[in-house]
Design brief:
The protein is about 60% helix and about 10% strand. The chain has a two-stranded antiparallel sheet with strand order 1-2. By secondary structure, it is mainly alpha-helical. About 10% of the residues are buried. It contains five helices and two strands; from the N terminus they run αααααββ.
């Protein structure tokens, strides 16, 4: 079975521009201009570098996670981190997601032992 690639808005707009350019359509230049404008709006939206409220909150939580991992002095699980005073209000899923992000960025290390993930500060 062939894998189909999902078309993004940008891809659709670019394809429509190609079709319009090869056909004799009324107001051809105006249509192309409008589509290029839509593509430019998508570019601006994707280049927005302002972090969201949740991203700012998550950064604070990540800093607390690293502090707690350093305080443990040994690899710890997400469940153990949940039991700490600073991280007790967060779910296992939330902490695991943030631990994964920290691991991917290289800020912490992850080791699996007997199907259990342990994290340690680098």
């Amino acid at each position: 079975m062939a894998e189909t690639k999902k078309m993004t808005k940008r891809m659709v707009f670019e394809r429509v521009i190609q079709v319009i350019e090869t056909t004799d359509v009324e107001d051809k230049d105006l249509l192309i201009e409008k589509l290029h404008n839509e593509i430019e709006l998508l570019n601006k939206k994707n280049n927005s570098s302002t972090p969201t409220k949740v991203q700012i909150e998550n950064q604070s939580i990540k800093e607390n996670i690293i502090k707690e991992l350093k305080a443990f002095g040994r690899p710890a699980t997400a469940t153990e981190l949940m039991a700490t005073e600073t991280l007790k209000g967060y779910s296992n899923q939330k902490l695991t997601a943030l631990l994964t992000q920290l691991n991917d960025s290289g800020a912490i290390s992850r080791v699996v032992d007997k199907k259990k993930a342990y994290f340690s500060a680098n």
